[in-house]
Amino acid sequence: MRDPETGGGEALARFEACLFAEPALQAALARTVRDDEFLGLALAAAADRGIALTEDAVARRVATDPLGLSRAAPPALLPAPPAGDWLPAAVRAGPDGALLVDWVHFADAPLVEPFFGVSLERARARPINRAFPCATPLAGAADGRRPDGLIFHQSRCGSTLVSAMLAALPGATAVSEPAPLDVVVQLALSRALPGDRGVAALRAVAGGYGRRAERAGGPFFVKLDSWHSRALPLFRAAFPGTPWLFLFRDPVEILVSQMRMRGLQTVPEMMHRSWYGLEADGEAPGEDYCARVLGRIGEAALEHRGLGGGLFVDYAELPGAVARRILPHFGIAPDGEAVAAMAAATARDAKAPYQRFTADSDEKRAAAGEAALAAVETHMRPVHARLAAAARETGG
User: Fold this and answer.
1) Which long-range contacts (CB under 8 A, 24 or more apart) does 299-308 make?
2) Confidence of residue 284 (pLDDT cuts 50, 70, 90)
């Protein structure tokens, strides 16, 4: 039972219980993005159920808190996620230290943004998610549909484009770099979730997104973060029958892109050197360090290639390789409608969908300085040659 002062009293608790028991009510309240409309719908729904809910009680829940100074509605702890379009939003420790999954209702909004985190912030803004947040134990999160394909990559090499093209397939669900998976991977590989517990946690969180795919009826893809290649054995243990893809690109182009805007995986303060097997030797995190990290990411995919199920694809083969090689590898035969939908997706910049795509490979190679070129030759070029060979061996 919630605290009557912060939770809105007995009437609010009764309405909340009805809400989480009735998917149709959840869907009706989730569709609105206006606070005043949400208040009216909630009060009318409560009255229909004989609950004397007050406008003030709901308004306190809906009130925004831009500075994050307080949270009027702590999440309701449920034994399992509610039916409907609730997707995993975060994995965190609860008051007793047990791991919890926070869920957010997406109101069936398409996941069209380049990254899941952007879609998540839009969903969080819906009044239902401010008024009635919920969480479940990680162990009981979900055992939904497993992915039809996993996308690993070396970073800045077309993975967002591939994800956007796959998302354009009729009925498809493509989840791009969801943060809850990051948490589970780090916990599993740090031995905080050892062995079967890590595998089960990964299945549970991915299964949460698979709930969307079950309703949509089309294929289900998960694009992972670049450093996840170091965890390929964990993913193979969790999804042994799921084919995976590793994308790579001319290393000069990758490094120039990273030096212009560093990804968290190349910043030691965000991803510790030990994650890549690098010693804390005092090296400044410039071109050389960044190239070493990117090289290790590619090496990990090659090292774990023997686990099976992998396909290596060069950025230079995109976008044609999606229909020609990637979809068949994922067990999907695209029809004319699917090919046309994917072609339309290629006209937009994958990371800035409101802009047209402009090729930048030549510009990036021309912009590379001496330090970048030297770092590439030392730490990335040999790995790139092996990745290119793997691509040829797998049909490229």
Assistant:
1) 299/383, 300/229, 300/230, 300/232, 301/152, 301/154, 301/229, 301/232, 301/246, 301/387, 302/383, 302/386, 302/387, 302/390, 304/229, 304/232, 304/233, 304/236, 305/390, 307/232, 307/233, 307/236, 308/236
2) low
